[in-house]
Task: structure prediction
Amino acid sequence: MAEPAITLDRITRRFGDRAAVDDVSLSLAEGRILALLGPSGGGKTTLLRLIAGLEAPDAGTLSIAGRPVAGPGLWMPVEQRGVALVFQDLALFPHMTALQNVAFGLKGATSDRRARALAWLDRVGLADLAHRHPHALSGGEQQRVALARALAPEPRVVLFDEPFSALDAHLRQSVRDDVARLLRDSGASAVIVTHDAQEAMGMVDALAILEGGRLIQMDTPQAVYDHPITATAARLLGPVNLLPGQAEGGAVETPFGRVASAQEGPVQIAVRPERLHLAQAGLAGHVAGCAFAGDCWIATVETTAGPLRVRVSGPTQGQVHLVAEPGAVRVLPG
Amino acid sequence: MTHRLPVFAAIAAALVLSACGQSGDTNAAEEGGVVNLYTARHYDSDLMLYERFTEQTGIRVNRIEGNADQLLARMQAEGDASPADVFVTADAGALWRVQNAGLLQPVQSETLNAAIPANLRDPEGRWFGFSRRARIVAYDQARVQPAEIDTYEEIASPRFRGQLCVRSADSVYNLSLVGALIEAWGPDRARQWVEGVVANMARPPEGGDRDQIRAVGAGVCQIALTNSYYYIRLASGDDAADREITTRVKLAFPSLDGQGAHVNISGGGVAANAPNRANAIRLLEYLASAEAQTLVSQHNNEYPASPNVPAPAPVDAYADFQAHPMPVSAYGPRQAEALAMMSAAGWR
Amino acid sequence: MALTATSLESSSGGRSRKRRPPSLLHVLALAAALIALVPLIGVIAAALGSTDARFAPSDLVRYGLTSLGLLALVLPSVSILGSAAAWLVSLYRFPGRDLFTWMLAMPLALPAFALAYGYADLLDVGGPFRLWLRDAGLGWSGSIRTLWGAGLILTLAFYPYVYLTVRSALTAPAARTIEAARLLGASPVGLAMRVGLPLARPAIAAGAALAAMETLADYGAVQFLGVQTLTTGVVRAWFVLGSVETAARLALPLLALAAVLLWLERQNRAGRYAESARSQGRRIALVQLKGPAASLATAFCGLIILLGLVIPLGWLTVSALDVAPEIGRIAGAARNSFGLGLAGAAATLVLAAAIALGAPRIPVTARLASLGYATPGAVMAIGLLVPAAAVWSGFAGSTLAALGLLVFAYAARLMAAAVEPLEAGLARITPTMGEAARLLGRNEVATAWSVQLPMIVGPALTAALIVFVDILKELPATLILRPFNFDTLAVMADNYARDERLANAGWPVLVIVLLTLPATWWLTGRIGAVRG
Result:
């Protein structure tokens, strides 16, 4: 039974000479939600389109629910894959009402499709606006119509391409909650392309970091957050202090003590601001600035190792000493 | 999506409707049967002619009108399946081309041979001329004496330098005229004549024959080459301004080698694969009849082909001229040569 | 469970081309394009045949130069007239604007040959106007029967192509850009030059390409005006020298010219922009013109309509009133024209939609399918004789088959007129629309039917109108392919005109205009109202 919802086996997609997706393998268990993170041009959207069937891989095999759908000599057309995609621009059909948009992907008798579409609109709180055309809906409402349209056919896999980027902050929160709720209810697996890690971490089971078309890390959000394996991954998930270092004999001298290193030569030393603390002794420095960040303050401390950001509980100034939590200092490739 | 269906239904209905409006039966075995006519003549008066034919014989006339060479191409493309019974056109050269393409069959009919003079039909009976038009000169009465324009040579003479209006070399009537001149005079003399004409042009060739006559009326030129029936139509038509022009512009019949004016024909023959051959011959015989020749002359201002059929009014006023006896079958083979000659001389 | 997957041809080295399996739409597009190409293939095959017809090279050079000269006159003038008029009525309010909006499209209904007859007759040295001028002591020695005159006539006949395409480009999606520019304080001239021109450039190019191809293909008007172009050579070769092969050979440079035009037009379209759902449903707010600007705008549009419509149509009407119309024959011909126009427009639109939707997959074939538009009807007729021969021998005597053949001929000849607006319309739809439909379980054909086609209703109506009107005016293919006893209005008009009976020719031309008038009026109203 436990076939993964999506399996990518050494998938490659080239545009000209450039590999947009380069030899990526991953699998996603049924009912799980995966976020694809990475810098712009990292291959996130291409990977999403490969899974959807909007692009064909140049190499590798793609399976959905254990069934190969694309690979050497193999191609299942997009409309047969049972995969839904919520586009960044939503791609609502402007000539159809909200109801017609949602009913579009449904099968069966007209009255039945209508009833189901209406039920979905109700589920996203738009039953009253069912007969409006997209241009007469607000951004959040359009987003919800797009969501209902994608989920209404009960796909086993739902893909999201930067789904919340066009929304303002408070709408974003509520739409995101809707998405999470509806996905859990439906039991569908989901892949969300985003550049906003904060947004993703709260709702996904796993994060995949794509850089230069390659999958560099895939794990739970917390694991990636705490144990990023590249500087890019570290930065993508949240603020991080990065210092240059030199590994010799299986360890690196850091301002916070000697840390074991798997590699030799130039490396980067990473430590998150919230895992540094002010202390009586430790790395000495001078507070160059302190910025309010809502629930805390972020102090920038000039030290002999360079400027470090530190999470503090209140406005801070003057000379300070910094210590790191045990295990907080990571050594990353240089 | 359903609202688009009625549109398609309406369009389909429109097509069927226009199809049903046609009686397309091309070889019905009904009483009297049919005859299928391919005609390059495009005159309304011809329709009346076909109606009269049907009244008298019970044979229905199906017709397709078109350019002579397009009809020729169509008959070639249709091949053995061609429904064409009779081919009719308004230039001896075009008749020759159709004959030359093997699309006409010989017909031996005493009626036809008796009605049509020998020089106006193919010796083998593949086509017959039913009406004549003369290619002659309209002149400004105030500036030209009729005696100055009683030969074709004079059209090209220095007397009319810059004083001649004429239409393009593409006009089959001009081509047939030059073809006839080549036949009568040989190429060298004909070329001199063409060069003289080009030198005499008051303006580059433009417009139709009617425009040439009007140009004479407007003083652009003193003489113009025209077909007889265009002038007669202006003189007897509804347009008062046009009638006024013909009070000042008159018609002269130049003579070729003293034997008369150049004439061209409208004529036709039986198609090589005619499915209704007997009916086709009956149609030709009707077209050769005195009644048909009179009708054509009356309504289209052409001259009857037969010397025994008197020209009716208003044509009779212009019918007193001598026509050159040259066989009209001579024009066709000379047309290509004529065009090359005219092009070389700058007759556009 | 068995895999419902089709095999994928893996052609390596396909570079950046999107590699996807061939689909039904692909096949449909190819089939539609081939249908349009059949006559062209016929022409080329005929051109390869042997011929002994002689042609003076100096004549050919002269024809070619005249064709190019005519293009050089018509291309810029239709572009300027058409786009300036469209810009004025799309952005500004001035006296008569609502009337002009649809009147400006009307000259489309006047066949170019009718314009030429009207003007040549009116301005003939022996004509009433010139005689009146002379009597009034006003000498004028010019003539409409010159290259310049032909340029003017064809400009008046063909500028509506640019007007219509530009007008549909200047509605919803352009509104935001134009408003933004206004807010940034752009002067009216700056707005037109720096914002309007780039926005409308693809549309101008599309319309101008149609006008240019019509110019190349025109025979009736230039012949009547005594201006000898390449089409004159074609017709001379066939109808005077009797050589189909030579005629086809002379058509090849025309095809090459048309191919260059289409290529240039594509280059111009590189800057296409996509339209998302959010920019739909907006219209440009009209700005009220005042004072001299308003008078100028009114005078400009009024002059175009006066020259392109009122004078020629008025003169034809005045002439026609001299003779009694044959109501019965004209009614029959009108019914035939109307039925053929509808059926032909529908068939052309269906094929053109398949080509336009599939164009990204078959770029070269799709372009070639448009070449028929630049082919003189007489040449097209040569190519059509090949498929026609098959129909004639297979369905001898069948009127329906003959009409079907005619509809096919129209589609092949007029494909460009439908493909151009449809492609321009499709270019404004974001690709995600189609992808969304595919993901919701529709195959490519169903997607085209339910998503893309409904979104290009506006351009499709433009295309249908142009094709409908073109069919009403079409002559050579109708002449040679029609069934027995089948007159159309254009055929009637041509019969009379060839017989130099302008007054009689006026009636069928007037009926053509009457038949087209409601469609034009309705369409231009819709262009303003339809979203997208």
